[in-house]
Amino acid sequence: MAKSRNNLLGVGGQRKKLSRAEQQGAVSARGADRRAAEDKKQELVRKMRERAEAQAATTATTAAAEPGEQDASPAQS
Description:
By secondary structure, this protein is mostly helical. Helix content is 68%, strand content 0%. It is built from two helices and no strands.
């Protein structure tokens, strides 16, 4: 067991030192980078959803057309 069990000084990490601009409410470069990354992620998710919806629509129209084609095949045999 630790000798100074009741001494919690330093537990939980250290706080980042804020520059004067950050103290006055200016956006840090790190915060701007995070927002830019989040925007890129949202755009990518939107594109992926659009592609998935388009593919699902194409699959649905293809599946709807197939039963009519299958009925014609056995009649010819």
